[in-house]
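Re: duplicated header lines in exported structure tokens

Our pipeline writes sequence and tokens for each protein into one text file. With two proteins the header for the second block appears twice in some exports. Here is an export where it did not happen, for reference. First protein block:
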Amino acid sequence: MYVYGIKKLFDFKRYVLNYVRCSENMTVVNMRKDRRYNLVCPNCGAKMSENRTSRQTARDLPFGQAGDVMIVYEAKQGKCRKCNSFATVHPEGIDPYAKATWRLMVFCSLLCRFMPPDRIEEVLPVSSSTAHRWDKKVLEKELGQPNFDGIRIIMVDEKAIWKHHGYVTVVLNGETGELLHMAKGKKKKAFQTFFDKLTAEQKSSIEAVAMDRGGTYRAVAKKAIPGAEIVYDKFHIIKNYLAEVIDVVRRRAYRGEVGQIRDLIKGQRYNLFKNPENLTEDDKTSLKELLDAYEEISCVHALKEELRALWRYRYGAWAEKHFKRWIKWAREASEEKGVPVIGRFADSLENSKDEILNYFKYRITLGRMEGFNNLISRVVHRACGYRDMDYLFLKMRQQSLGVCPQR
């Protein structure tokens, strides 16, 4: 029986199809070298003399009901007299080390993007370790190395992905969101390894670095790229204020009060943290009762809203005036209300004034980075963890670029 078009399914250059033998669970495809073509040296392109022939096998994509497709082909070893070397010629599209066709490896890599490697064997007849190796090999070829030329803005943050505070340092391109670097730890060395990859010209193109107020990353950036400006993330500053001021005042009030006021304070933590536009009507009612009853909490809550208003300005000069007013209000409130945490927080912000106001030059935040950190959590959880740091970098770089392997 002749089946039309079957040759096109196994169209490997310089090889011809002998026969296809199908059984219930396996399809065997037999191929031989097309004798019309000479052996060509893969190193220099010169003609080679044939030395010996061996029969080798490679897995291929499932064909029909047969989940396992095996290609049997002639592998010709030749000797090149020009470069004086031996080389074995395999069909294009077959990886002799993986013993599989490239299209099967790419399909396996595509499945690994949406499911963990240990579940691949439910779809393809390959083990989880094989799927891991193939996926890594395909991603290395498809993604290549990041291009560090012309980068203007970078973002840096740490992310916990292992137990017992196992952190990685993540660096993104602030304009495109491309993952540029990932290294174990959150200390200076982890961030410094990123700058070690860059040339002097590539470093000079970086104009700004967005980060939180941690001193470790700032010190590395100032030393490696002294001409770049530091931009502190506004969301982290608000988060710091909530934890270091509002929550401290709320807990102190709860411990020091009794009776009705203590009942008003109880359960109000997230109402104090939320933005007014996110409060429900019940939340607004209970929060208003608390603010009317407790003056210190009302004061720090009002300062929170004024601090948030800083980033609503369009021009840096007006924002700087508001910033100075807020520092003055915070210090006055600290003295009048007897709440030293407000004054200490105001002092820390004043020391970081330039880094905070640099936002109005570049208008960047770590919002994209926080979203990417959540994506890391989902990818790591889906795979039940990663031990290979290089493989994790490739997986997350694929996510940041949105690239699917091409067959």
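Second protein block, exported in the same file:
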Amino acid sequence: MKRRVVVTGIGIKSPLGNTLSEFQDRLFSMKSGLVAMSCWDDIIGLKTKVAGLVFDINEKEIPRTSRRSMDRGSILAALASCDAIKDANLNQEQISSYKTGIAYGSTVGGGATLEKVFGDFRQDSSYLKQTSMDFLKYMSNTVCGNLSSYFNIKGRSIPICSACTSSSQAIGMGYELIQNNQIDRMICGGAEGMHHSLASIFDVIGAASTVHNETPQKACRPFDKSRDGVVVAEGAGTLILEDLESALKRGAKIYAEIISYSTNSNGNHMTNPDEDSIVNVMETALETSNLKVTDIDYVNAHATSTDLGDIVESNSIYKLFQNTVPVSSIKGQLGHTLGACGAIESIAAISSITQDKLPSNINIDSLDEECASLDYITEVREQEVNIVLKNNFAFGGINTSLIFKKYN
């Protein structure tokens, strides 16, 4: 028998807020968390000067003995995970049980630490300035490794480094492990700390927003005709997933149930999205949960405000759903949090279910006629929301779809 999997704890650190209630308030008020990055003015050749930042955190809440091996992304992840564990009302004995594991993702290790280490090397061709903690800050599994150590996780530890699907795959992995009776609960999510190198790669390939450097809140415009690219952002999102029976036994609060997860690969290009693969990943998620397209109340799109990406995703959604389902991307408010986007946007999807509200696309002034004719949400919409499909896609050709359901 497949076990039912529910979400019993949520923690978030994001440009839209650092608590669930603050995030929801700003999300459903159509606020923007994007800011001008004047500190990037001295970086030669970098044309984009907008990002989403996390403010008002106190990293010293994490003891120095643990914090010294953490770069920005790990710090955000640790703070978000502390909140999620507290929210789920888990004690240390439960956290350190072999029945509790972690799956956590990021796109890259610590960018600031990498810059320091290799900058020092270029200066005098020596690695002698490297500290014993530097590698632990920039290794590819730094976020998951730091969290495992900090929280004394003894069950499975699964670092996911699949670019922008890192945290959606982490949630999917946790879901499948619990569903198949491999473990009772999982700490799942993703994090990314801001560094200019994250913006520069999109800049180099002509996929970063540059037109709205002076008006940052207008910079990210999924599906809009005048969109000009990605706005990178930092943040962390953590979900506590748990076997339903375990959650009920201990009287846990239940936010939503996860009822399906699907992932596949384009298999043909490192960066360009593929319509057939995106249709397949959504179709498979529906089939494995015995759902019809008419059962989905809302699609939370990946849409990053790139030219090709928004067109292909919108046409993929139309191919499966026609124009019967409301669609929005919250990246217009949040920016693209890369390895954290799957988790943070899943929190938005769950918020739609718990609040019976659909978040809006912001900055759609004129819909791109090459995007499919969908029901694009342009104002926050209040309606009953029972089932939400959440998409995420990544460089490397990875596609994911998660389906969340109101628990009853």
